[in-house]
Write a structure and sequence with these properties.
The complex is a heterotrimer of chains A (81), B (202) and C (244).
Chain A (H helix, E strand, L loop, with lengths): L3 E2 L4 H8 L7 E4 L5 E3 L4 E3 L5 E4 L6 E8 L2 E5 L3 E4 L1
Antiparallel strand pairs in A: 1-4, 2-3, 2-8, 4-5, 5-6, 6-7
Chain B lengths: L26 E2 L20 E6 L2 E7 H5 L4 E8 L4 E12 H5 L8 E6 L4 E5 L9 E6 L2 E2 L9 E3 L12 E7 L6 H4 L18
Parallel strand pairs in B: 1-5, 2-11
Antiparallel strand pairs in B: 2-3, 4-5, 5-8, 6-7, 6-11, 8-9, 8-10
Chain C lengths: L2 E5 L5 E12 L2 E7 L11 E7 L5 E7 L9 E5 L7 H7 L5 E8 L13 E6 L3 H13 L6 E7 L8 H5 L5 E7 L10 E2 L4 H7 L8 E7 H13 L7 E6 L3
Parallel strand pairs in C: 8-9, 8-12, 9-10, 10-11, 12-13
Antiparallel strand pairs in C: 2-3, 2-7, 3-6, 4-5, 4-7
Classes of the chains: A mainly beta (81), B mainly beta (202), C alpha/beta (244).
């Protein structure tokens, strides 16, 4: 299965955050690795969108779109921006 | 809000279900889409175990050879994914969860299936017994491929396929229902495709 | 659970197809007219949304093939079992409408102010955003040294072939054909590997900037090898394409 990267959810993040987040520095709460969202590991086409740290595979973000509302869990990030 | 423009001549590739054989909102697929919430684990079979746990205790566990020595069944079932694809007549080989739970004494009402990589999903005990669920290690006459959940996955075809946890390593017995991974993110706690229970509140 | 629930904003715009140019048997470049298009940077992409008569919708992302200042265009490769790409490559006509969202991307982009030399590595249709980088570079008169290493199955699959060979001023296209080479072929053969990259990639000591785009396996292999050659991870920008 092809794992994509954060470039693939640039549009989704634009909708959810109101701004282009692809170059935002994401700090993994599990291992501390810092990389831009564009370089994270993204799992699409499941029930929701799962974003993981490319270093430790820790969960960074989960985005579910349910009845037109996007719900974003950012607790896997210790910093974003 | 203005209506979006229709793109002339564009139509869905997959026909909507016209015979009424599918649950509402599903379409038939002839391939087998690979969906995942994380990287494919590659647990070698010599390291694989399946456990039934309750609280902090392991009530029963099997190594791969022990698991292979259990009575297994070949079943042909229809599967329905919450992302709307359905696949009819899929053939699996596995051990019935009835066989596994018969090895332990318990009065639990619910289970939380747990997998390599941290995925979990919850089900009532009555939905994984009475011949409704298996721990499957074979698909279509072959060993279950890693991308589809091998060495073994849970198979619970009467519920949406996110309940059929890939890379399953055991069942945690619970007194109360407890949301697993997708259930925590707004997916339905039970997930009956025939009542179209995709999201919490459906 | 910390997070936020947000209703979708009005980010989609209507676009009208201005032109459809066939690049190869399975690849077209679609020129779009988007009123109020804000301009775009080299390397960015946009999202396309199609709505069928019955309300069915599909969305896909495509890299922008042109540089800023040119009309926005996307290059699309037909995937035989795809739902959207065959429609775009085989059915779409000038005058047709679709919706777009974008431009998107603030990481996989190149501007004049970014240092070089540039190493651009393309696997198949991964060449699209890299071509926009080369067009932008030419348009602004940059002389930053640039090398494109472009992997395709056969010569007939090479997109923008004539154009890629005519960038002067320190830009060079190097090809490898993985499945079949024509008689007398003097380019590389086979998949990009460590030996090929060692010959083509700028030495790490020159402080190069790399952009790698294509299927997941291509990107993983090439990016990993560039890091092994001494490129800092932060100087290797990647964009992975999937199927459908």
């Amino acid at each position: 299965m092809a794992t994509l990267d954060g470039n693939a959810i640039g549009g989704l993040l634009l909708e959810v955050f109101g701004t282009d987040m692809t170059d935002a520095a994401a700090t993994c709460a599990t291992c501390g690795a810092v990389r831009p969202l564009a370089e994270t590991a993204v799992y699409l086409r499941g029930p929701g969108t799962v974003v993981r740290c490319r270093t430790c595979a820790g969960l960074l973000m989960v985005i579910s779109r349910i009845r037109g509302v996007s719900c974003v869990d950012l607790t896997g990030l210790s910093a974003l921006g | 809000m203005t209506n979006p423009p229709v793109s002339r001549g564009f139509h869905r590739r997959r026909p909507a279900d016209e015979d009424g054989k599918l649950p509402p909102g599903q379409y038939l697929t002839d391939d087998f889409p690979v969906l995942s919430a994380g990287p494919t684990p590659h647990t070698p079979r010599p390291d694989w175990t399946f456990a039934i746990r309750r609280g902090g205790d392991t009530l029963a566990s099997w190594t791969w050879p022990e698991f292979q020595a259990l009575p297994a069944e070949t079943v042909t079932v229809d599967i329905h994914c919450v992302t709307r694809w359905s696949k009819l007549g899929t053939t699996w080989r596995g051990v019935s969860v009835d066989t596994l739970l018969a090895q332990v004494k318990h009065d639990a009402g619910y289970v939380l299936a747990f997998s390599d990589g941290g995925y979990t999903t919850n089900l009532p005990v009555k939905d994984v017994t009475s011949g409704q669920a298996w721990v499957a290690f074979g698909y279509d006459g072959q060993p279950l491929a890693a991308e589809h959940g091998g060495p073994a996955r849970l198979l619970v075809p009467h519920l949406y396929f996110w309940k059929s946890a890939k890379w399953v390593r055991g069942l945690e017995l619970l007194d109360h229902d407890q949301p697993g991974f997708w259930e925590n993110y707004g997916y339905h706690i039970y997930g009956d495709p025939w009542r179209e229970q995709r999201y919490a509140g459906d | 659970m910390a997070g936020t629930a947000v209703r979708g904003r009005l980010t989609w715009q209507v676009a009208t197809v201005a032109s459809v140019i066939r690049e190869t048997d399975s690849v077209v470049t679609i020129g779009l007219e988007v009123p109020g298009w804000p301009g775009h940077r080299a390397g960015q992409h946009l999202d396309v949304r199609l709505t069928a008569e019955d309300g069915y919708r599909a969305e896909r992302s495509y890299s922008i093939a042109t540089s800023d200042g040119e009309p926005v265009a996307i290059t699309v490769e037909r995937l035989d079992d795809g739902e959207v790409s065959p429609y775009l490559t085989d059915e779409l006509r000038p005058g047709d409408q679709l919706e777009v969202r974008g431009p998107i991307g603030r990481w996989f982009v190149w501007d004049a102010s970014d240092a070089g030399p540039l190493l651009l590595a393309a696997g198949g249709s991964g060449v699209v955003p890299l071509r926009s980088i080369l067009r932008h570079r030419q348009r602004i008169g940059s002389t930053v040294p640039a090398r494109l290493l472009y992997s395709s199955r056969t010569l007939a699959d090479v997109i923008y072939h004539g154009e890629l060979d005519q960038y002067g001023d320190g830009a060079q296209a190097i090809y490898t054909l993985t499945r079949r080479q024509p008689p007398g072929w003097t380019g590389y053969s086979g998949r990009v590997d460590a030996a090929m990259l060692a010959e083509v990639a700028w030495p790490a000591g020159q402080h190069p900037l790399a952009f790698v785009c294509g299927p997941n396996s291509f990107v993983e292999t090439v990016a990993g090898q560039l890091v092994t050659l001494g490129y800092p991870a932060g100087r290797v920008k990647t964009e992975r394409f999937g199927g459908t």
